[in-house]
Specification:
3 helices
Length: 116
Amino acid sequence: MAKSAKKQVKNKELIKKKDITFNLSINKSAVLIILGVLLTASFILPYYYINYAHSLNQYHSFPLDDPWIHLQFAKNLAEYGSFSYFKNEIVTAGSTSPLYTLILAAGFLLQKMKCG
């Protein structure tokens, strides 16, 4: 009798382990579905946003002002040697990413060397 009780306990433990494994596989598939939805949304939403902005403005532009500010700083740095928003201004701290601005300025200098 004791042996059959032990077998029943073992069987119950095996069933529990199988249930846990089954639940984990459901969780993995749920995670994959969620990741797939997020990945799809990360492509679809910006696409619709850009098209909506284009329909309002009738041209493609920067949706935020930071890229424009970086380009303006880089252009002034390349053309006038001034790390500022306006060409004749003293050096300012308006660029939130100076390294990115320097990389853009190098691009402006390369373009200037090719064209001029």
